[in-house]
Amino acid sequence: MRDALLGAAFQLFLERGYEGTTVDDIVALAGVGRRSFFRYFPSKEDVVFPDHERCLADMKAFLDEGDDTADDPVRRVCDAARLVLRMYAENPTFSVQRYRLTKKVPGLRAYELSVVWRYERALAEYLRGRSAGRPGGTLHADVVAAAVVAAHNNGLRSWLRSDGKGDAEAAVDQALGYVQETFGGSPGAAVAEAPEDVVVVVSRRGAPLWRVVQEIESAFGRD
Amino acid sequence: MRDALLGAAFQLFLERGYEGTTVDDIVALAGVGRRSFFRYFPSKEDVVFPDHERCLADMKAFLDEGDDTADDPVRRVCDAARLVLRMYAENPTFSVQRYRLTKKVPGLRAYELSVVWRYERALAEYLRGRSAGRPGGTLHADVVAAAVVAAHNNGLRSWLRSDGKGDAEAAVDQALGYVQETFGGSPGAAVAEAPEDVVVVVSRRGAPLWRVVQEIESAFGRD
Questions:
Q1: Of A138, A197, A205, which is closest to B220 when you measure between CB atoms?
Q2: How many domains does chain B have?
Q3: Do A60 and A40 reside in the same domain of the chain?
Q4: pTM score, two decimals?
Q5: From the CA atom positions of chain B, what is the Rg in Å?
């Protein structure tokens, strides 16, 4: 019945537009009562994004279940973000239709932003827990979570714009790879788990080598 | 008159709650007509966030006016984000009241997310322009814009939670400093503009020094 309601809703959204379709229209086409609709979907917006609640719960469970002593936290949140991609990739036609609809309807756009925000908060909360008590821990957590979401969405959107024809996983893997390169081994990770700290030295290519070595010795606490 | 409407609105929001206050209540307390209200504010939400439209316009103007051949793009978007902070810091009492109100009212939270999204898009569009045609340019732009917004908001919120008593600029400077360290000199910036590349060397603190120097020599192309 849930699938029948979804099918009816999207047929009507495409024919009459989202705003021009009521819940009564949807249940009439699906041949069920209003009460059945609201058993599956709290509101009309939820028909457009029917799987986000489940996906958010899966993401939190995935984050809770990992081995915190072994996993790199940046890698873990990247893997958690991939659960969202998988939900989209399960049904390309539906995802592409929804993408087009969401771009056109401001109310859906706002709803989607609130969903994305909840994913981002789930990732940030996890990272905050992993870096608890460390100076700059919440800042690092918030920035990494935002970067992961932005990269995931960049990959996801490029796949949606290709009408779901390209390789969704490859697009998102590449985007998340960039975030892992940028933040992997940063304060949330290596300083916490590795017994040996990581030292990052940034220098201009033109700097004299003796000057660079001096800086490294000082960073390593060997001078 | 705009200030009188703002004052009346916030007094009522605090007394009766946001949902329990109508535009009629606000204009009655301010002693003006409904038409005056809608001249200044398109909706009730806009009374809560009265300066974001101006700030967004200021941000776009600031980004347009800079010298693209000289400025580091990551630094520029960080400076653009500081315009938002300044708007909040201009009126700490109002900003703290609004922060508390927004946390309690889901509709305002959704409105705020849409505003934050527009700032993020403005920063990302600018960065996309600066890295146009470069491989990974849109990904880099989207990730940096999200990181800047997350860092800014982390600093801003910690100031708001201190009831506007701490140093707002210092909190945000520190947060944005972290983003500049992370992304400054990355593909959008130094590789494009600086004649001397930046070399980043990452090593474990426990590594033998000779091994580190070897890696650096190789990174600097001196071996």
A1: A205
A2: 3
A3: no
A4: 0.79
A5: 22
